[in-house]
Amino acid sequence: xxxxxxxxxxxxxxxxxxxxxxxxxxxxxxxxxxxxxxxxxxxxxxxxxxxxxxxxxxxxxxxxxxxxxxxxxxxxxxxxxxxxxxxxxxxxxxxxxxxxxxxxxxxxxxxxxxxxxxxxxxxxxxxxxxxxxxxxxxxxxxxxxxxxxxxxxxxxxxxxxxxxxxxxxxxxxxxxxxxxxxxxxxxxxxxxxxxxxxxxxxxxxxxxxxxxxxxxxxxxxxxxxxxxxxxxxxxxxxxxxxxxxxxxxxxxxxxxxxxxxxxxxxxxxxxxxxxxxxxxxxxxxxxxxxxxxx
Length: 294
Description:
- It is built from four helices and 20 strands.
- The protein has one domain.
- Strand 11 and strand 12 form a beta hairpin.
């Protein structure tokens, strides 16, 4: 078992902070700090007041994006207003000032275990490796959850996105009761936003903890089962030793990570560890062999 602890002692030009993609490097802090926004769910129908003319209005005190001129609708992305800024009306607002440390890619510990069991002529060797306490930024989801670009396909999870269209009319509805009935999962902390350009940008182009996942895992890395034939049998064949075996590599990984591989290293440099940018998954392989000696 290994423990790796880091601390940034200094940066070039007497800087105290350095930004690198989804990471922030700070003097006096460890490496691997993810930097971005806190995802605060989506605007639900509870955040609005139904007007007498059938439209809706955002309630006072509900956080909103600083400087936004387009109307905020139910199903829009809401990011955490952590900096304490407000607009002219006293409503909390979120902007680039609200980016903060949202996680860390460095595990609490890593390690491995090897066990060999023997019974009569059989032998079984099992090698497992593990990592615990790290997070992975699933950039695959960030790229394709959107869709990020026009005419781009999206992940199947978008089928559960917030819907503004009333299927009975085929048109967008502003009735809050109807919207609530159409979107029963709107209060889920991981609820998926409705599709529009602003949501596509906030959802797929800015770093937020929506895409951070637990990267802990236990991998059944290598398992070998062999059998060594007894000497009395080998004497008749006039050979000294005969063993047959079968090995499987990367049999299974126990993890909560939803990407291809929690043990990911698809980004560049020490500052980018823990970003899954379409890393090619590890293959599973099988080997059979014979050890023969005369």
